[in-house]
Amino acid sequence: MALPPSLRVSFSPQELELIACEELVEIIPLIAMEKTAFISGAYGPLRPPNKAKVPLWMAMNLKLKKKCHIVAPDWLSVEYLQDKLLQETNAEGFSALPLRFAEMSKVLLDVAAEDIPNSDKVRSLLKDIREVRQAKSRDGLKKIDHIELSLANLCAMEINEIRPFYTRAMDVLTHLARSPIADV
Q: Assuming Cys at both sites, which of 54, 103, 143, 162 could form a disulfide with 20, CB separation 3.0 to 4.6 Å?
């Protein structure tokens, strides 16, 4: 449902997934196809068994038609995610993850779980990372001030989730900082 601009403060998760579908991923095509031009660019040629980089939307389309295998990005492996979970639990700040990792991982696990090694473990690790990062965001509320808000390494979905609250909180804090203190 489209909301009027006055009521929209952030993107919906589905809109973020749509934006993430422009990211390039590697596929192993199962069909041959010449270079094809789309609005977003030209992709191909596809020659099995050579890998090719295509947008996620195209990879999903080909995968659903059983015309390719999607190569999982390096960051969507058990080892990488275990390392990031360890960093998240042991370090104060947010660990560096791809900007659209939440959206891309959801789409890839929904469409091509069989192409991702240990997909169940990957899902579990992604959930654990998300919970730790959400807890850090909530703890960040204790340190918020009206001058600066620094939350480095948040992904697009996380920024989108906290934007309405943090925007309003910063407005209130700025207003309080500027207003004169009344005599009692």
A: 103
